[in-house]
Design a protein that fits this description.
The protein is of the alpha/beta class. The chain folds into 2 domains: 70 residues, no CATH class; 199 residues, no CATH class. The protein contains 7 helices and 10 strands. A 10-stranded mixed β-sheet has the order 1-2-3-4-5-6-7-8-9-10. A hairpin with a 5-residue loop joins strand 9 and strand 10. The protein starts with 5 loop residues before the first strand and ends in a 15-residue tail after the last helix. The relative contact order is 0.10.
């Protein structure tokens, strides 16, 4: 695969893909996009690629001219993340620099350290970042489906530390997708560096609030929660340039085939009904942001619900990609 630039693998065992020769190994240096979704053997492959990247960049025996890794976009999904996968992933991300897109989704575990552990070599070039860990299946309301990305239980401390790491290391970030500790009331009075990201246009909070009666939506409407999030995260912005945030979204991004279909979800003609027929907690809800300055010099947001089709047209991207790229999981 000497000319391959984009490699996407879904549900395949990757053990046999490990390179057995130097030319095969160096082919990974020419990849610009790598996507591994639900693939056994991901840890071993990432370990092998990391070793190749390090060898090609530092070894005196590497071919001349040196082949620097060209990878710009990396997507990883795993239902069974392990310590071995965590260690391989961190070594892989630390073996090169220059990523523009990093999207990590782990089911059934929160195993990675703070973002500073694996973003140091990519911060200045990073444009799109997704960090999510969740429990499977999301459709089961008696389970906590809003589990965040990080070590141990989610709290305002982890949210604050993670966001501050991202804001410090990724000043040019344009898209951010993460979980949010909705049920931690202290988060409302904690201040992060998120408003300092001058290029951040889109935020996707990938979980809904929960309460104790198995409601994914809690005590407020989805728009009210969206408004509260903006108030908490962008509090009392006075003076300065207009905030760059234009698009806020809440909720999971999943293939429709992951939904629990029932006969009522199909029309008499045999066609699938609209995605909007799914329960609210299985859909992503989009909001357009418009900022205006009050007479007191404070930036005040106007939050308007919009459809996914409106977002596709405004972004000239159909279907939506980036932090909204749909996720295939076994």
């Amino acid at each position: 695969m000497p000319r391959l630039r984009d490699l996407s693998l879904h549900g395949l065992n990757l053990i046999a893909l490990r390179p057995s020769s130097i030319p095969q190994a160096l082919a990974f240096c020419r990849l610009e996009r790598l996507c591994l979704e639900s693939c056994p053997g991901s840890a071993e492959l990432l370990e092998s690629i990391a070793a190749t990247f390090h060898w090609s960049s530092t070894s005196a025996h590497a071919p001349s001219p040196r082949q620097s890794p060209l990878l710009k976009h990396f997507i990883l999904r795993s239902e069974e993340p392990s310590n071995a996968l965590k260690d391989s992933l961190i070594r892989f991300l630390c073996s090169f620099s220059g990523l523009e897109t990093l999207s990590l989704l782990f089911e059934n575990a929160t195993i990675l350290e703070r973002p500073s552990t694996f973003l140091c070599d990519h911060g200045s070039t990073m444009r799109s970042l997704v960090l999510e860990s969740r429990i499977q299946p999301r459709e089961h309301l008696s389970l906590d489906t809003s589990r965040p990305f990080g070590v141990g239980g989610y709290s305002q401390d982890l949210w604050e530390e993670s966001i501050n790491d991202i804001a410090r290391l990724c000043p040019n970030l344009v898209e951010l997708g993460m979980g949010f500790p909705w049920n931690d009331e202290i988060v409302r009075i904690r201040r992060t560096l998120l408003p300092t990201l001058k290029h951040l246009r889109t935020i996707h909070i990938r979980n809904f609030p929960e309460n104790n009666v198995f409601s994914q939506l809690g005590d407020y409407t989805i728009k009210e929660y969206a408004t509260k999030f903006i108030e908490w995260v962008f509090p009392a912005l006075v003076g300065g340039a207009r905030p760059a945030l234009e698009h806020f979204a809440m909720g999971p991004t999943l293939y429709e085939t992951r939904m629990n279909m029932h006969p009522g979800m199909y029309s008499s003609a045999g066609n699938n009904r609209s995605r909007s027929s799914a329960p609210e907690y299985l859909r992503t809800h989009h909001f357009a942001m418009d900022w205006a300055k009050t007479r007191f010099g404070r930036w005040s947001p106007m939050i308007t619900p919009v459809t996914e089709r409106w977002v596709e047209e405004s972004e000239d991207m159909r279907p939506l990609a980036g932090i909204f790229e749909q996720v295939w999981l076994r």
